[in-house]
């Protein structure tokens, strides 16, 4: 993914290696979750409920289509950003 490519370029910074590895892992998990759910998310008639399960944090219907992984990725990138300052 684009995030993984960009993070690979930063990998030379000694103090950031652990945070970069965590961000890469979260990025891959999010991408995998979306790919695994492509049958429900990649169709023309995707339901609002399934789309919300993929990207909307405040969705009460569930987080089984990628929101949980997206939240982890966001937190990981935030942590990396703070460490890189």
TrEMBL record:
The keyword Signal applies. InterPro entries: Lipoprotein_OspC, OspC-like_sf. It is found in: Cell outer membrane. Transmembrane segments: none annotated. Keywords: Cell outer membrane, Lipoprotein, Membrane, Palmitate, Signal. It comes from the Bacteria. GO terms for cellular component: cell outer membrane. It is a lipid-anchor. This is Outer surface protein C. It comes from Borreliella burgdorferi.
């Amino acid at each position: 993914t684009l995030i993984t490519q960009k993070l690979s370029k930063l990998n030379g910074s000694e103090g950031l290696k652990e945070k970069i590895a965590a961000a890469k892992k979260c990025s891959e998990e999010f991408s995998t979750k979306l790919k695994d759910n492509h049958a429900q998310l990649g169709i023309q008639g995707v339901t609002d409920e399934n789309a919300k399960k993929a990207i909307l944090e405040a969705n009460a219907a569930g987080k089984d289509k990628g929101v949980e992984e997206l939240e982890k990725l966001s937190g990981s990138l935030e942590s990396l950003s703070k460490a890189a300052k």
